[in-house]
Design a protein that fits this description.
Blueprint (H helix, E strand, L loop, with lengths): L1 H11 L4 H14 L2 H11 L10 H12 L3 H11 L2 H8 L11 H10 L5 H13 L3 H12 L8 H12 L3 H7 L11 H6 L14 E2 L1 E2 L13 E7 L2 E8 L2 E6 L10 H4 L9 E11 L2 E2 L2 H5 L9 H6 L2 E11 L2 E2 L5 H15 L4 E3 L8 H9 L6 E8 L7 E2 L4 E5 L3 E12 L8 E10 L2 E8 L5 H13 L1 E5 L2 E4 L4 E6 L1 E4 L7 E4 L2 E5 L11 H12 L1
Parallel strand pairs: 1-12, 2-13, 8-10
Antiparallel strand pairs: 3-11, 4-5, 4-6, 6-7, 6-8, 8-9, 11-13, 14-15, 14-18, 14-19, 15-16, 17-18, 19-22, 20-21
Protein backbone atom coordinates (compact mmCIF):
# COMPACT_ATOMS: atom_id res chain seq x y z
CA UNK A 1 0.00 0.00 0.00
CA UNK A 2 2.92 2.32 0.79
CA UNK A 3 4.42 1.66 -2.66
CA UNK A 4 1.08 2.35 -4.34
CA UNK A 5 0.83 5.64 -2.43
CA UNK A 6 4.33 6.57 -3.63
CA UNK A 7 3.32 5.69 -7.20
CA UNK A 8 0.19 7.85 -7.13
CA UNK A 9 2.17 10.75 -5.68
CA UNK A 10 4.77 10.38 -8.44
CA UNK A 11 2.14 10.24 -11.19
CA UNK A 12 0.35 13.26 -9.78
CA UNK A 13 3.60 15.21 -9.47
CA UNK A 14 4.73 15.17 -13.08
CA UNK A 15 3.41 15.86 -16.55
CA UNK A 16 6.31 14.10 -18.30
CA UNK A 17 5.40 10.87 -20.05
CA UNK A 18 8.81 9.26 -19.46
CA UNK A 19 8.63 9.94 -15.72
CA UNK A 20 5.11 8.50 -15.48
CA UNK A 21 6.14 5.31 -17.30
CA UNK A 22 9.26 5.05 -15.15
CA UNK A 23 7.19 5.33 -11.94
CA UNK A 24 4.75 2.65 -13.11
CA UNK A 25 7.58 0.35 -14.22
CA UNK A 26 9.25 0.73 -10.83
CA UNK A 27 6.02 -0.19 -9.03
CA UNK A 28 5.46 -3.24 -11.26
CA UNK A 29 8.99 -4.52 -10.66
CA UNK A 30 8.63 -4.31 -6.86
CA UNK A 31 5.07 -5.55 -6.49
CA UNK A 32 3.38 -8.91 -6.02
CA UNK A 33 1.14 -10.30 -8.74
CA UNK A 34 -1.92 -9.44 -6.61
CA UNK A 35 -0.86 -5.81 -6.22
CA UNK A 36 -0.03 -5.54 -9.93
CA UNK A 37 -3.52 -6.73 -10.80
CA UNK A 38 -5.09 -4.05 -8.60
CA UNK A 39 -2.76 -1.45 -10.14
CA UNK A 40 -4.13 -2.35 -13.59
CA UNK A 41 -7.74 -2.41 -12.39
CA UNK A 42 -7.66 0.84 -10.42
CA UNK A 43 -5.82 2.89 -13.02
CA UNK A 44 -7.89 1.58 -15.93
CA UNK A 45 -11.23 2.27 -14.22
CA UNK A 46 -12.25 -1.26 -13.17
CA UNK A 47 -12.99 -0.43 -9.55
CA UNK A 48 -15.38 -2.35 -7.30
CA UNK A 49 -18.48 -0.56 -6.08
CA UNK A 50 -18.09 1.94 -3.24
CA UNK A 51 -18.27 -0.02 0.05
CA UNK A 52 -19.14 2.92 2.35
CA UNK A 53 -21.37 5.97 2.08
CA UNK A 54 -19.38 9.20 1.97
CA UNK A 55 -21.71 10.78 4.56
CA UNK A 56 -20.35 8.29 7.11
CA UNK A 57 -16.75 9.10 6.13
CA UNK A 58 -17.46 12.78 6.72
CA UNK A 59 -18.92 12.10 10.16
CA UNK A 60 -16.10 9.78 11.27
CA UNK A 61 -13.37 12.10 9.96
CA UNK A 62 -14.87 15.14 11.70
CA UNK A 63 -15.16 13.16 14.94
CA UNK A 64 -11.57 11.87 14.72
CA UNK A 65 -10.26 15.36 13.92
CA UNK A 66 -12.41 16.86 16.70
CA UNK A 67 -13.98 19.34 14.31
CA UNK A 68 -17.63 20.31 13.83
CA UNK A 69 -19.10 18.68 10.71
CA UNK A 70 -19.98 22.06 9.19
CA UNK A 71 -16.29 23.07 9.25
CA UNK A 72 -15.31 19.88 7.42
CA UNK A 73 -18.01 20.60 4.83
CA UNK A 74 -16.78 24.16 4.31
CA UNK A 75 -13.21 22.88 4.00
CA UNK A 76 -14.38 20.34 1.43
CA UNK A 77 -15.98 23.07 -0.69
CA UNK A 78 -12.67 24.96 -0.68
CA UNK A 79 -10.38 21.96 -1.27
CA UNK A 80 -12.75 20.47 -3.83
CA UNK A 81 -11.91 16.84 -3.08
CA UNK A 82 -13.32 14.82 -0.15
CA UNK A 83 -10.45 12.30 -0.06
CA UNK A 84 -7.88 15.09 0.17
CA UNK A 85 -9.91 17.05 2.72
CA UNK A 86 -10.17 14.06 5.06
CA UNK A 87 -6.47 13.23 4.63
CA UNK A 88 -5.49 16.77 5.59
CA UNK A 89 -7.69 17.30 8.65
CA UNK A 90 -6.93 14.04 10.47
CA UNK A 91 -4.28 14.00 13.23
CA UNK A 92 -0.86 12.50 12.48
CA UNK A 93 -0.51 8.72 12.45
CA UNK A 94 0.23 7.02 15.79
CA UNK A 95 1.55 3.79 14.24
CA UNK A 96 2.22 2.23 10.82
CA UNK A 97 1.02 -0.73 8.79
CA UNK A 98 2.65 -2.92 6.17
CA UNK A 99 -0.60 -4.10 4.60
CA UNK A 100 -0.38 -4.61 0.87
CA UNK A 101 -2.64 -2.96 -1.69
CA UNK A 102 -4.33 -6.30 -2.29
CA UNK A 103 -4.96 -6.81 1.43
CA UNK A 104 -6.52 -3.34 1.74
CA UNK A 105 -8.75 -3.91 -1.28
CA UNK A 106 -9.87 -7.30 0.04
CA UNK A 107 -10.62 -5.65 3.40
CA UNK A 108 -12.72 -2.96 1.72
CA UNK A 109 -14.77 -5.59 -0.10
CA UNK A 110 -15.48 -7.42 3.16
CA UNK A 111 -16.76 -4.24 4.87
CA UNK A 112 -20.11 -4.72 3.14
CA UNK A 113 -20.79 -7.67 5.46
CA UNK A 114 -19.95 -5.82 8.70
CA UNK A 115 -22.05 -3.69 11.03
CA UNK A 116 -21.62 0.09 10.91
CA UNK A 117 -19.65 0.25 14.17
CA UNK A 118 -17.26 -2.45 12.93
CA UNK A 119 -16.76 -0.57 9.66
CA UNK A 120 -16.08 2.64 11.56
CA UNK A 121 -13.50 0.91 13.74
CA UNK A 122 -11.68 -0.49 10.68
CA UNK A 123 -11.62 2.84 8.84
CA UNK A 124 -10.48 4.96 11.80
CA UNK A 125 -7.82 2.40 12.71
CA UNK A 126 -6.55 2.42 9.13
CA UNK A 127 -6.42 6.23 9.14
CA UNK A 128 -4.34 6.16 12.33
CA UNK A 129 -1.78 3.88 10.63
CA UNK A 130 -1.21 6.04 7.55
CA UNK A 131 0.57 9.24 6.60
CA UNK A 132 -1.28 11.93 4.65
CA UNK A 133 -0.27 10.53 1.27
CA UNK A 134 -1.41 6.99 2.12
CA UNK A 135 -4.66 8.32 3.58
CA UNK A 136 -5.38 10.28 0.44
CA UNK A 137 -4.99 7.17 -1.74
CA UNK A 138 -6.92 5.02 0.75
CA UNK A 139 -9.78 7.54 0.78
CA UNK A 140 -9.81 7.57 -3.02
CA UNK A 141 -10.13 3.78 -3.02
CA UNK A 142 -13.13 4.09 -0.69
CA UNK A 143 -14.95 6.91 -2.47
CA UNK A 144 -14.42 5.49 -5.95
CA UNK A 145 -13.34 8.86 -7.37
CA UNK A 146 -9.94 7.50 -8.33
CA UNK A 147 -8.58 9.66 -11.14
CA UNK A 148 -4.88 9.97 -11.91
CA UNK A 149 -3.25 11.93 -14.72
CA UNK A 150 -2.29 8.82 -16.66
CA UNK A 151 -3.93 7.59 -19.85
CA UNK A 152 -4.83 4.03 -20.76
CA UNK A 153 -2.16 4.25 -23.45
CA UNK A 154 0.56 4.93 -20.86
CA UNK A 155 -0.64 2.06 -18.65
CA UNK A 156 -0.41 -0.26 -21.67
CA UNK A 157 3.06 1.05 -22.50
CA UNK A 158 4.32 0.42 -18.94
CA UNK A 159 2.80 -3.08 -18.86
CA UNK A 160 4.20 -3.95 -22.28
CA UNK A 161 7.65 -2.86 -21.14
CA UNK A 162 7.30 -4.88 -17.93
CA UNK A 163 6.06 -8.02 -19.71
CA UNK A 164 8.25 -7.75 -22.81
CA UNK A 165 5.13 -7.84 -25.01
CA UNK A 166 3.86 -5.74 -27.91
CA UNK A 167 1.55 -2.90 -26.88
CA UNK A 168 -1.32 -3.93 -29.15
CA UNK A 169 -1.35 -7.43 -27.61
CA UNK A 170 -1.42 -6.05 -24.07
CA UNK A 171 -4.15 -3.57 -24.99
CA UNK A 172 -6.32 -6.36 -26.44
CA UNK A 173 -5.84 -8.57 -23.38
CA UNK A 174 -7.06 -5.76 -21.14
CA UNK A 175 -10.35 -5.51 -23.00
CA UNK A 176 -13.45 -7.40 -21.96
CA UNK A 177 -15.43 -8.32 -18.89
CA UNK A 178 -12.76 -9.02 -16.26
CA UNK A 179 -12.49 -7.97 -12.63
CA UNK A 180 -9.63 -8.15 -10.10
CA UNK A 181 -12.05 -10.23 -8.02
CA UNK A 182 -12.35 -13.02 -10.61
CA UNK A 183 -8.96 -13.28 -12.33
CA UNK A 184 -5.21 -13.08 -11.68
CA UNK A 185 -2.46 -10.97 -13.20
CA UNK A 186 -0.94 -14.05 -14.82
CA UNK A 187 -4.22 -15.28 -16.26
CA UNK A 188 -5.10 -11.85 -17.60
CA UNK A 189 -1.78 -10.77 -19.09
CA UNK A 190 0.83 -13.54 -18.94
CA UNK A 191 -0.96 -16.79 -19.70
CA UNK A 192 -3.66 -15.11 -21.78
CA UNK A 193 -5.24 -17.42 -24.34
CA UNK A 194 -7.06 -15.45 -27.01
CA UNK A 195 -9.54 -18.32 -27.48
CA UNK A 196 -10.59 -18.63 -23.85
CA UNK A 197 -12.62 -15.41 -23.81
CA UNK A 198 -14.91 -15.50 -26.81
CA UNK A 199 -16.60 -12.24 -25.89
CA UNK A 200 -13.41 -10.14 -25.83
CA UNK A 201 -13.60 -7.05 -28.09
CA UNK A 202 -10.73 -5.24 -29.77
CA UNK A 203 -9.45 -1.84 -28.56
CA UNK A 204 -11.31 0.90 -30.43
CA UNK A 205 -9.60 3.15 -32.96
CA UNK A 206 -10.63 6.78 -32.33
CA UNK A 207 -10.43 9.82 -34.57
CA UNK A 208 -9.10 13.29 -33.78
CA UNK A 209 -11.00 16.47 -34.68
CA UNK A 210 -9.72 17.88 -37.97
CA UNK A 211 -7.13 20.49 -36.99
CA UNK A 212 -6.25 22.17 -40.28
CA UNK A 213 -7.91 22.93 -43.57
CA UNK A 214 -8.99 19.63 -45.20
CA UNK A 215 -6.97 20.43 -48.34
CA UNK A 216 -3.84 19.83 -46.23
CA UNK A 217 -4.71 16.11 -46.18
CA UNK A 218 -3.82 15.69 -49.85
CA UNK A 219 -5.98 14.41 -52.70
CA UNK A 220 -9.66 14.00 -51.89
CA UNK A 221 -9.79 10.57 -53.57
CA UNK A 222 -7.30 9.20 -51.00
CA UNK A 223 -10.01 9.38 -48.34
CA UNK A 224 -13.22 7.55 -47.55
CA UNK A 225 -16.02 9.86 -46.37
CA UNK A 226 -18.89 8.80 -44.11
CA UNK A 227 -21.42 10.64 -41.98
CA UNK A 228 -20.52 11.03 -38.31
CA UNK A 229 -23.53 9.73 -36.41
CA UNK A 230 -24.49 10.63 -32.85
CA UNK A 231 -25.11 7.26 -31.23
CA UNK A 232 -23.19 4.75 -29.14
CA UNK A 233 -19.97 3.44 -30.64
CA UNK A 234 -19.97 -0.33 -30.27
CA UNK A 235 -18.48 -3.62 -31.37
CA UNK A 236 -20.66 -6.57 -32.28
CA UNK A 237 -18.83 -9.83 -31.56
CA UNK A 238 -20.20 -12.95 -33.30
CA UNK A 239 -18.29 -16.04 -32.20
CA UNK A 240 -19.37 -19.68 -31.77
CA UNK A 241 -23.00 -18.84 -32.43
CA UNK A 242 -23.23 -16.12 -29.76
CA UNK A 243 -23.55 -12.34 -29.93
CA UNK A 244 -21.77 -9.91 -27.60
CA UNK A 245 -22.11 -6.15 -27.88
CA UNK A 246 -19.52 -3.89 -26.26
CA UNK A 247 -19.57 -0.11 -25.83
CA UNK A 248 -16.48 2.02 -26.29
CA UNK A 249 -16.35 2.30 -22.50
CA UNK A 250 -15.75 -1.47 -22.29
CA UNK A 251 -19.25 -2.18 -21.01
CA UNK A 252 -21.11 -5.31 -22.13
CA UNK A 253 -24.48 -3.97 -23.32
CA UNK A 254 -25.98 -6.93 -25.23
CA UNK A 255 -29.11 -7.12 -23.05
CA UNK A 256 -30.03 -3.51 -23.75
CA UNK A 257 -30.38 -4.10 -27.49
CA UNK A 258 -32.37 -7.33 -27.98
CA UNK A 259 -33.01 -6.37 -31.64
CA UNK A 260 -29.34 -7.03 -32.35
CA UNK A 261 -29.12 -10.38 -30.54
CA UNK A 262 -31.13 -12.00 -33.33
CA UNK A 263 -28.20 -11.41 -35.72
CA UNK A 264 -26.52 -14.54 -34.31
CA UNK A 265 -29.01 -16.59 -36.31
CA UNK A 266 -28.33 -14.94 -39.67
CA UNK A 267 -24.74 -13.64 -39.76
CA UNK A 268 -22.97 -15.85 -42.33
CA UNK A 269 -19.90 -16.59 -40.19
CA UNK A 270 -17.97 -15.51 -37.08
CA UNK A 271 -16.91 -11.87 -37.27
CA UNK A 272 -16.36 -8.66 -35.32
CA UNK A 273 -18.09 -5.51 -36.59
CA UNK A 274 -17.29 -1.98 -35.45
CA UNK A 275 -20.13 0.52 -35.78
CA UNK A 276 -22.62 2.92 -34.26
CA UNK A 277 -25.74 1.86 -32.37
CA UNK A 278 -28.47 4.35 -33.30
CA UNK A 279 -32.15 4.88 -32.64
CA UNK A 280 -33.66 4.37 -36.09
CA UNK A 281 -37.25 4.25 -37.30
CA UNK A 282 -39.13 4.44 -40.61
CA UNK A 283 -35.90 4.47 -42.59
CA UNK A 284 -34.23 7.40 -40.83
CA UNK A 285 -32.23 8.12 -37.67
CA UNK A 286 -33.88 9.45 -34.52
CA UNK A 287 -32.28 11.89 -32.07
CA UNK A 288 -29.85 10.81 -29.36
CA UNK A 289 -32.61 11.59 -26.87
CA UNK A 290 -34.50 8.53 -28.14
CA UNK A 291 -31.44 6.35 -27.65
CA UNK A 292 -30.94 7.80 -24.18
CA UNK A 293 -34.22 6.24 -23.02
CA UNK A 294 -32.46 2.86 -23.35
CA UNK A 295 -29.10 3.72 -21.77
CA UNK A 296 -28.75 2.41 -18.24
CA UNK A 297 -31.76 0.08 -18.52
CA UNK A 298 -31.31 -3.66 -18.26
CA UNK A 299 -34.97 -4.38 -18.96
CA UNK A 300 -36.41 -2.81 -22.09
CA UNK A 301 -40.19 -2.41 -22.19
CA UNK A 302 -42.28 -3.04 -25.30
CA UNK A 303 -43.09 0.67 -25.46
CA UNK A 304 -39.40 1.64 -25.57
CA UNK A 305 -38.75 -1.00 -28.23
CA UNK A 306 -41.61 0.45 -30.29
CA UNK A 307 -40.76 4.13 -29.74
CA UNK A 308 -36.98 3.86 -29.98
CA UNK A 309 -35.90 0.83 -32.03
CA UNK A 310 -32.21 0.57 -32.84
CA UNK A 311 -29.92 -0.49 -35.65
CA UNK A 312 -26.18 -1.03 -35.88
CA UNK A 313 -24.64 1.11 -38.60
CA UNK A 314 -21.50 -0.86 -39.51
CA UNK A 315 -18.25 1.08 -40.09
CA UNK A 316 -15.61 -1.61 -40.18
CA UNK A 317 -14.88 -5.34 -40.13
CA UNK A 318 -12.16 -6.20 -37.58
CA UNK A 319 -12.31 -9.99 -37.64
CA UNK A 320 -13.49 -12.55 -40.19
CA UNK A 321 -13.74 -16.28 -39.46
CA UNK A 322 -11.21 -15.92 -36.64
CA UNK A 323 -8.73 -13.84 -38.68
CA UNK A 324 -7.68 -10.46 -37.26
CA UNK A 325 -8.12 -7.94 -40.11
CA UNK A 326 -6.86 -4.83 -38.34
CA UNK A 327 -3.59 -4.65 -40.29
CA UNK A 328 -5.45 -5.03 -43.58
CA UNK A 329 -5.94 -1.70 -45.43
CA UNK A 330 -9.30 -0.09 -44.73
CA UNK A 331 -10.34 -0.20 -48.38
CA UNK A 332 -10.01 -4.01 -48.31
CA UNK A 333 -11.81 -4.29 -44.97
CA UNK A 334 -14.66 -2.25 -46.45
CA UNK A 335 -15.11 -4.74 -49.32
CA UNK A 336 -15.28 -7.61 -46.83
CA UNK A 337 -17.73 -5.65 -44.67
CA UNK A 338 -20.01 -5.06 -47.67
CA UNK A 339 -19.99 -8.80 -48.30
CA UNK A 340 -21.04 -9.58 -44.71
CA UNK A 341 -23.86 -7.02 -44.78
CA UNK A 342 -25.17 -8.20 -48.16
CA UNK A 343 -25.23 -11.83 -47.01
CA UNK A 344 -26.92 -10.98 -43.70
CA UNK A 345 -29.78 -8.91 -45.19
CA UNK A 346 -31.11 -7.67 -41.86
CA UNK A 347 -33.07 -4.44 -41.24
CA UNK A 348 -31.13 -3.94 -37.98
CA UNK A 349 -27.66 -4.22 -39.56
CA UNK A 350 -26.94 -1.39 -41.98
CA UNK A 351 -23.71 -0.29 -43.58
CA UNK A 352 -22.37 3.24 -43.22
CA UNK A 353 -22.97 5.07 -46.46
CA UNK A 354 -19.87 5.99 -48.42
CA UNK A 355 -19.88 9.60 -49.60
CA UNK A 356 -17.79 10.34 -52.68
CA UNK A 357 -17.15 14.08 -53.16
CA UNK A 358 -15.16 15.05 -56.22
CA UNK A 359 -13.38 17.90 -54.46
CA UNK A 360 -12.76 19.30 -50.99
CA UNK A 361 -15.16 22.13 -51.85
CA UNK A 362 -17.92 19.62 -52.55
CA UNK A 363 -17.04 17.77 -49.31
CA UNK A 364 -17.43 21.04 -47.39
CA UNK A 365 -20.90 21.59 -48.88
CA UNK A 366 -21.97 18.06 -47.85
CA UNK A 367 -20.58 18.63 -44.36
CA UNK A 368 -22.53 21.88 -43.97
CA UNK A 369 -25.80 20.13 -44.81
CA UNK A 370 -25.14 17.03 -42.69
CA UNK A 371 -27.35 18.21 -39.83
CA UNK A 372 -30.33 17.84 -42.18
CA UNK A 373 -29.93 14.04 -41.78
CA UNK A 374 -29.22 14.33 -38.01
CA UNK A 375 -25.50 13.81 -38.55
CA UNK A 376 -22.76 15.69 -36.68
CA UNK A 377 -20.59 16.08 -39.76
CA UNK A 378 -18.21 13.83 -41.66
CA UNK A 379 -15.65 11.14 -40.85
CA UNK A 380 -12.53 11.10 -43.00
CA UNK A 381 -10.60 7.81 -43.17
CA UNK A 382 -7.53 7.19 -45.25
CA UNK A 383 -8.27 4.31 -47.61
CA UNK A 384 -4.89 2.66 -46.95
CA UNK A 385 -5.11 2.93 -43.14
CA UNK A 386 -4.86 0.07 -40.66
CA UNK A 387 -7.21 -0.18 -37.69
CA UNK A 388 -5.07 1.20 -34.86
CA UNK A 389 -5.48 1.31 -31.08
CA UNK A 390 -6.84 4.37 -29.27
CA UNK A 391 -6.81 7.96 -30.49
CA UNK A 392 -4.17 8.53 -33.16
CA UNK A 393 -3.51 11.44 -35.50
CA UNK A 394 -3.00 11.05 -39.21
CA UNK A 395 -5.39 8.52 -40.75
CA UNK A 396 -8.82 9.09 -39.17
CA UNK A 397 -10.34 12.53 -38.64
CA UNK A 398 -13.76 13.80 -37.58
CA UNK A 399 -14.88 16.95 -39.41
CA UNK A 400 -17.87 18.13 -37.43
CA UNK A 401 -20.29 20.92 -38.30
CA UNK A 402 -20.15 24.04 -36.21
CA UNK A 403 -22.29 23.77 -33.07
CA UNK A 404 -25.73 25.29 -32.75
CA UNK A 405 -25.69 28.24 -30.38
CA UNK A 406 -27.83 30.58 -28.31
CA UNK A 407 -27.11 33.64 -26.14
CA UNK A 408 -28.00 33.13 -22.49
CA UNK A 409 -27.72 34.80 -19.08
CA UNK A 410 -25.72 33.26 -16.24
CA UNK A 411 -27.91 32.96 -13.11
CA UNK A 412 -26.06 30.44 -10.87
CA UNK A 413 -22.44 29.54 -10.24
CA UNK A 414 -20.82 26.71 -8.32
CA UNK A 415 -17.25 25.99 -7.30
CA UNK A 416 -15.33 23.50 -9.40
CA UNK A 417 -13.18 20.56 -8.33
CA UNK A 418 -9.47 19.82 -8.23
CA UNK A 419 -7.41 22.78 -9.37
CA UNK A 420 -10.65 24.77 -9.82
CA UNK A 421 -11.83 24.18 -6.25
CA UNK A 422 -11.33 27.84 -5.31
CA UNK A 423 -13.02 29.16 -8.46
CA UNK A 424 -16.67 29.47 -9.38
CA UNK A 425 -16.33 27.63 -12.67
CA UNK A 426 -19.59 25.65 -13.11
CA UNK A 427 -22.43 27.81 -14.37
CA UNK A 428 -26.18 27.61 -14.96
CA UNK A 429 -27.65 29.58 -17.86
CA UNK A 430 -31.14 30.86 -18.60
CA UNK A 431 -33.17 32.36 -21.45
CA UNK A 432 -36.14 34.69 -21.29
CA UNK A 433 -39.76 33.57 -21.06
CA UNK A 434 -41.60 36.85 -20.92
CA UNK A 435 -40.14 38.70 -17.92
CA UNK A 436 -38.79 35.50 -16.34
CA UNK A 437 -35.39 33.88 -16.80
CA UNK A 438 -35.81 30.12 -17.24
CA UNK A 439 -32.76 27.88 -16.65
CA UNK A 440 -32.03 25.49 -19.54
CA UNK A 441 -28.39 24.38 -19.40
CA UNK A 442 -25.28 23.96 -17.27
CA UNK A 443 -21.77 24.34 -18.65
CA UNK A 444 -18.27 24.45 -17.22
CA UNK A 445 -15.97 24.33 -20.24
CA UNK A 446 -15.01 26.86 -22.87
CA UNK A 447 -13.39 29.69 -20.91
CA UNK A 448 -9.67 30.29 -20.48
CA UNK A 449 -8.23 30.43 -16.96
CA UNK A 450 -8.02 34.22 -17.19
CA UNK A 451 -11.65 34.51 -18.33
CA UNK A 452 -12.77 32.14 -15.59
CA UNK A 453 -10.98 34.20 -12.94
CA UNK A 454 -12.80 37.31 -14.15
CA UNK A 455 -16.16 35.53 -13.91
CA UNK A 456 -15.19 34.26 -10.45
CA UNK A 457 -14.58 37.83 -9.27
CA UNK A 458 -17.97 38.86 -10.64
CA UNK A 459 -19.70 35.97 -8.82
CA UNK A 460 -18.11 36.88 -5.47
CA UNK A 461 -19.07 40.54 -5.81
CA UNK A 462 -22.59 39.98 -7.15
CA UNK A 463 -24.01 37.11 -5.09
CA UNK A 464 -27.74 37.35 -4.37
CA UNK A 465 -28.18 34.13 -2.38
CA UNK A 466 -26.34 30.95 -1.37
CA UNK A 467 -27.42 27.32 -1.50
CA UNK A 468 -24.52 25.28 -0.12
CA UNK A 469 -21.76 25.47 -2.77
CA UNK A 470 -24.07 27.22 -5.26
CA UNK A 471 -24.51 30.98 -5.53
CA UNK A 472 -27.35 32.84 -7.17
CA UNK A 473 -25.90 35.89 -8.95
CA UNK A 474 -27.14 39.08 -10.52
CA UNK A 475 -28.32 38.24 -14.05
CA UNK A 476 -25.89 40.54 -15.84
CA UNK A 477 -23.42 38.38 -17.79
CA UNK A 478 -24.34 37.07 -21.23
CA UNK A 479 -22.62 34.08 -22.87
CA UNK A 480 -22.95 32.29 -26.18
CA UNK A 481 -23.70 28.63 -25.45
CA UNK A 482 -22.88 26.04 -28.09
CA UNK A 483 -24.44 22.57 -28.29
CA UNK A 484 -24.44 19.53 -30.58
CA UNK A 485 -28.06 18.46 -30.25
CA UNK A 486 -31.39 19.50 -28.76
CA UNK A 487 -34.44 17.50 -27.65
CA UNK A 488 -37.68 17.95 -25.73
CA UNK A 489 -37.44 17.01 -22.03
CA UNK A 490 -39.98 16.61 -19.26
CA UNK A 491 -37.20 16.69 -16.63
CA UNK A 492 -36.19 20.29 -17.26
CA UNK A 493 -38.18 23.41 -16.42
CA UNK A 494 -37.47 24.79 -19.88
CA UNK A 495 -38.85 21.62 -21.49
CA UNK A 496 -35.60 21.29 -23.44
CA UNK A 497 -32.39 19.29 -23.03
CA UNK A 498 -29.14 20.11 -24.83
CA UNK A 499 -26.43 17.69 -25.93
CA UNK A 500 -22.85 18.66 -24.96
CA UNK A 501 -23.53 22.29 -23.95
CA UNK A 502 -20.41 24.45 -23.59
CA UNK A 503 -19.42 28.10 -23.48
CA UNK A 504 -18.30 29.50 -26.82
CA UNK A 505 -17.58 33.05 -25.62
CA UNK A 506 -18.74 35.80 -23.31
CA UNK A 507 -20.93 38.36 -25.11
CA UNK A 508 -19.54 41.64 -23.78
CA UNK A 509 -21.47 43.35 -26.58
CA UNK A 510 -24.88 42.26 -25.25
CA UNK A 511 -26.97 43.32 -22.32
CA UNK A 512 -29.01 40.71 -20.41
CA UNK A 513 -32.31 41.78 -22.00
CA UNK A 514 -30.76 41.07 -25.43
CA UNK A 515 -30.27 37.38 -24.64
CA UNK A 516 -32.36 34.81 -26.49
CA UNK A 517 -35.77 33.56 -25.47
CA UNK A 518 -37.30 30.15 -24.80
CA UNK A 519 -39.25 30.66 -28.01
CA UNK A 520 -35.92 30.93 -29.88
CA UNK A 521 -34.79 27.61 -28.34
CA UNK A 522 -38.06 25.96 -29.34
CA UNK A 523 -37.59 27.22 -32.90
CA UNK A 524 -34.16 25.56 -33.02
CA UNK A 525 -35.72 22.37 -31.63
CA UNK A 526 -38.46 22.33 -34.26
CA UNK A 527 -35.96 22.83 -37.07
CA UNK A 528 -33.66 20.14 -35.64
CA UNK A 529 -36.22 17.37 -35.30
CA UNK A 530 -38.39 18.19 -38.32
Amino acid sequence: MKEFGILISALDGTTKTTEKISAMSSFLQKSSSEDKLWFVALLSGKRPKRPIKTTLLRQWAAEMAKLPLWLLEESYHVVGDLAETVALILPNATKSSDKSLDARMQDLQSLKELKEEEVKNYITTAWSEMNKNERFVFNKLITGGFRVGVSHKLIVKALAEHLGEEENIVSHRLMGDWSPLNTTFEKLLVEADEKENLSRPYPFYLAYPLENEPESLGEVNEWQFEYKWDGIRGQLIHRNGEIYIWSRGEELITERFPELEGLKEILPYDCVIDGEIMAFKDGKPLTFNHLQTRIGRKKISKKILTDSPVVLVAYDLLEEKGDDLRTTPMESRRIKLESVISQTKSPVLLISEKIEPRSWKEAAIIRESSREVLSEGLMLKRKTSNYKVGRRRGDWWKWKVDPMSIDAVMIYAMRGHGRRANLYSDYTFAVWKGEELVPFAKAYSGLTDKEMQAVDRFVKKNTLDRFGPVRSVKPELVFEIGFEGIAPSTRHKSGIALRFPRILRQRFDKKPDEANTLEDLNSILEAYIS
